[in-house]
Amino acid sequence: MRVKIYQINSERDPDRTHFLGSDERNNLCGNLNINPSAYDEVFNAVIDETDLEEIFQRFNTVGHPLYRGYSLSVSDVVVTEKGAFFCDSIGFKSIEFDETKTQKPSDMMKIVYKEPGKPAFETEIPNHYKDLSKAVKGLLETVYNGDNTIIVCNEEGKLIGMKGNIHLDNGTSIIAGPFFVCGDDGENFRGLTDEETEKYLKKYVEPEDISDDETQSDVGFTIVGM
What we know:
226 residues; alpha+beta; six-stranded antiparallel sheet; five-stranded antiparallel sheet; 30% strand; elongated
């Protein structure tokens, strides 16, 4: 299920409602006073969890490589296919929430993201080394696809025991761990076009079943262009 998480940016919170639950907000403002323009988008991805309490637990323990926020807390907003929900002092409260008024980094680029054993999905990521490295959980390795797009994966994925994700087009080499596909502008990464996004969503719609033994047997392989 696709889940989006929004957290208050204190610089755009004149009423100082950050970390306040519904009772405190009602005492301060006379109502719940959810101001979408005070919120930043810190997560937009597909995850296994569908229950709000499970989502809360995940983002207070293991998190996610694409997560840009702090531990899920009171005053945060979680948006799922079922609607928008305010994280209260106890539980969640269904709310109206205009996502178009929220903000996110200006240098976001569109990518196709793929985790082992799961279908790929479209999302965005800040085009900074720190965020790119976090997305693949380590050092960056690039694989050029020959169509002005690049696979970006973890250089040490197989060495540190990450799960096998896909076979490259030569059928033998394996990429282990999460990876993403982005565009190549000749010098830097760029966001994918709509056509490129559709191409790689279709290409990686079916997860591959790759055993740990097969992945480990590929350790020491040097990744080359596809």
